[in-house]
């Protein structure tokens, strides 16, 4: 993709209005927190104190809207506490330009590194720096700075208290995540009726797993409807795929295929009913027709072989799903000791340790997070120094804009730059026009600020351009409380916002962190994870008595995470104005298809794992050993652009076929499909390597 095309795409993305589900009650509650803090500060204090308090409540309210499974009151307190510390230190350093620049450099460097912990930490840290740049411009003394910082923290306390006193849909986020997972499996079942090899998006299941991480206190308070469903949905998915697959399940046409379609439709209906009950907290109501289909027919089984075994397994799992809300969850093991029947969430100390490890992992020059931190630090400092030298005043607008615009990836940085400038221009013109025409006093300005922040909370997930417009109007109304001149605000805000946005975009172009060159590493990681998943499943066939359930489960989760990392990187690379000669776009798509088929094949085999008392399959163990020996060399070959060679794995498969004769089992058929997927991967990457070493005709231009 050329630079002009990439800029057009990112500009279009930044101007797009997203239509997502709003949360009006949560928005009203957060706006009431801002109104309460501003009103009390105006009544008991001064306009400048009211502005500081308003920014604290605003920051805490924003933090509660970020997608996180952690308790939202703690997010509000953490955001306000961080902002209070930033504000107090900023006040102390603001007396001298050099000390403030040093503090700004350290603070933005730490903010950039916070993206290593996660997007929520990065967004909240970015917001704290941005708001700190505004609040430190309000005149005060050292003791006044302490008062400003305390009021900023008070804003977070008020927001956290409102969340506790007036909860909106307790456990609502967890309910939605679990319902989405069940609905995703239901949709998958319906799609399998018409496409037996339809792909499955594991993202809802991954999000449901993240939502299921709880503290022991939360586990005791968790509604019964949120217990057990996620694991059942995970178990149903491979059974559905195995039942519909024409190789290991029912034939493509005939009475057995018609029976499979009935089972898939009934399963989708039941899972949708359960998802609706979980989302709305109502009893499960399943149509009797669907449940009658999911039973053994009176005239005997209509399926045979592996398809019949999968159908029987499906009957049992669907019955467990329907009855899960009425079944208590035991929390005592056979030995009498207490065990966790939930995914434990680390406490404060564990979370801090995980955050430090994440930051330490990204402390390398090749890390996009470290490059983002260095880029953010340099741009913020240079923007502040440049805007201080300009006769515009309000020197904080440029670094504020750079901080809000810059992101670790190209697409978000450039799309936010366009949206930020246009949204700021609209918000300043509207807010400034109202102030110029009405000349509101402190109370009216505070009311207008609350209305602006309410609109921002309501439209928070509709696009960055809308959010920028509402935030800009909010800042204009707040500054009018403190008596800031409207004309100076408009001139400085527009000019310095443009300066900050341009600095951010130029900085990314000069010091980029492209995702495209890392595609082969992501692909290699996905291959390694799929290989570990495959060997774990085949080992279970080779040694059923020694099978450990967690071994297959952990390998599946690793493979799913590697696939998600690849898809995210591939989506980012698709929007970047660079081309990686070692992996063309066509080769990347072909490799993704091959690895997806590899993962699906192993998932089919997972649905038929043998019982512990089953006879061992020695050939499966030999195949797993050959695959395990070949995988490290293959992973390294993907990274180094060398040809893939699966000859040892293929020979092991041929020996297995010779020993099985004319009675191949499910494991052997899936091993053959797995070999086909590996060959497709080798062909895609080997063809890409040959094309990258082929001399290009100088008369042809650079391909996108």
Question: Could you list some keywords that capture this structure?
Answer:
704 residues; mainly alpha; two-stranded parallel sheet; 2 strands
Task: Please list the strands of the largest sheet in the order they lie side by side.
Answer: 1-2
Number of separate helices: 27
Unreliable residue runs: 327-340, 693-704
- What average pLDDT do the residues reach? 82
Give the helix/strand class.
mainly alpha
N- to C-terminal distance:
4 Å
Rounded radius of gyration (Å): 29 Å
Number of DSSP-assigned strands: 2
The portion of residues assigned to helices is: over 70%
Q: How much of the sequence is in beta strands?
A: under 5%
Integer tally of domains? 3
Write down the secondary-structure element order: HHHHHHHHHEHHHHHEHHHHHHHHHHHHH
Overall shape: globular
Question: For the report, how would you describe the main beta sheet?
Answer: 2 strands, parallel
């Amino acid at each position: 993709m050329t630079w002009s095309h990439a800029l057009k795409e990112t500009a279009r993305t930044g101007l797009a209005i997203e239509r997502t589900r709003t949360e009006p009650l949560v928005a009203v509650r957060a706006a009431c927190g801002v109104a309460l803090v501003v009103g009390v500060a105006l009544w008991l204090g001064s306009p400048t104190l009211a502005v500081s308090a308003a920014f604290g409540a605003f920051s805490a309210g924003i933090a509660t809207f970020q997608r996180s499974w952690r308790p939202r009151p703690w997010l509000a307190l953490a955001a306000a506490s961080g902002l209070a510390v930033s504000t107090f230190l900023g006040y102390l350093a603001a007396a001298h330009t050099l000390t403030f620049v040093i503090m700004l450099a350290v603070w933005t460097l730490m903010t950039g590194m916070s993206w290593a912990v996660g997007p929520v930490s990065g967004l909240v840290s970015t917001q704290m720096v941005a708001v700190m740049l505004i609040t430190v411009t309000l005149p005060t003394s050292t003791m006044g700075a302490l008062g400003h910082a305390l009021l900023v923290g008070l804003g977070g306390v008020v927001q956290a208290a409102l969340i506790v006193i007036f909860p909106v849909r307790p456990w609502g986020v967890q309910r939605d995540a679990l319902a989405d997972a069940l609905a995703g499996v239901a949709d998958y079942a319906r799609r399998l009726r018409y496409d037996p090899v339809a792909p499955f998006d594991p993202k809802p299941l991954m999000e449901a797993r993240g939502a299921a991480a709880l503290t022991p206190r939360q586990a005791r308070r968790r509604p019964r409807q949120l217990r057990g469903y996620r694991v059942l949905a995970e178990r149903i998915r491979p059974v559905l795929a195995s039942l519909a697959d024409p190789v290991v399940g029912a034939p493509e046409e005939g009475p057995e295929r018609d029976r499979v379609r009935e089972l898939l439709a009934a399963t989708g209906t039941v899972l949708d009913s359960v998802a609706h009950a979980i989302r709305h907290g109502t009893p499960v109501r399943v149509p009797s027709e669907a449940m009658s289909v999911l039973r053994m027919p009176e005239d005997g089984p209509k399926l045979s072989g592996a398809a019949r075994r999968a159908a029987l397994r499906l009957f049992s799992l669907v019955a467990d799903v329907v009855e899960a809300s009425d079944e208590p969850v035991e929390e005592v093991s056979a030995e009498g000791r207490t065990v966790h029947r939930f995914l434990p969430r680390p406490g404060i100390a564990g979370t801090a340790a995980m955050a430090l490890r994440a930051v330490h992992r990204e402390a390398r020059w090749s890390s996009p997070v470290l490059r983002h931190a260095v880029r953010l630090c340099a741009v913020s400092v240079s923007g502040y120094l440049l805007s201080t030298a300009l006769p515009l005043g309000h020197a904080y607008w440029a670094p504020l804009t750079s901080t809000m615009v810059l992101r670790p990836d190209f697409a978000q940085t450039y799309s936010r730059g366009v949206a930020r400038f246009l949204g700021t221009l609209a918000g300043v013109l509207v807010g400034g026009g109202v102030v110029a025409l009405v000349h509101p006093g402190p109370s009216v300005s505070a009311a207008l600020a609350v209305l602006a922040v309410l609109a921002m909370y309501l439209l928070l997930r509709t696009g960055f351009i809308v959010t920028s417009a509402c935030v800009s109007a909010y800042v204009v109304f707040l500054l009018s409380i403190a008596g800031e001149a409207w004309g100076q605000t408009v001139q400085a805000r527009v000019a310095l916002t443009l300066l900050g946005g341009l600095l951010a975009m130029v900085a990314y172009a000069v010091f980029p962190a492209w995702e495209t060159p890392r595609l082969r590493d992501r692909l290699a990681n996905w291959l390694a994870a799929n290989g570990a998943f495959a060997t774990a499943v085949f080992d279970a066939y080779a040694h059923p008595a020694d099978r450990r359930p967690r071994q297959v489960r952990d390998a599946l989760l690793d493979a799913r995470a590697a696939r998600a990392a690849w898809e995210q990187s591939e989506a980012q690379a698709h929007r970047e104005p660079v081309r990686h000669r070692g992996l063309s776009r066509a080769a990347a798509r072909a490799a993704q298809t091959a690895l997806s088929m590899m993962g699906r094949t192993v998932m089919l085999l997972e649905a038929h794992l043998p019982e512990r008392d089953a006879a061992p399959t020695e050939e499966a163990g030999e195949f797993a050993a050959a695959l395990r020996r070949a995988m490290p060399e293959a992973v390294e070959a993907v990274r180094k652009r060398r040809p893939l060679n699966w000859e040892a794995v293929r020979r092991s498969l041929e020996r297995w076929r010779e020993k099985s004769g004319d009675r191949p089992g499910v494991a052997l058929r899936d091993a053959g499909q797995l070999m086909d997927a590996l060959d497709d991967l080798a062909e895609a990457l080997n063809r890409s390597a040959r094309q990258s070493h082929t001399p290009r005709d100088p008369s042809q231009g650079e391909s996108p």
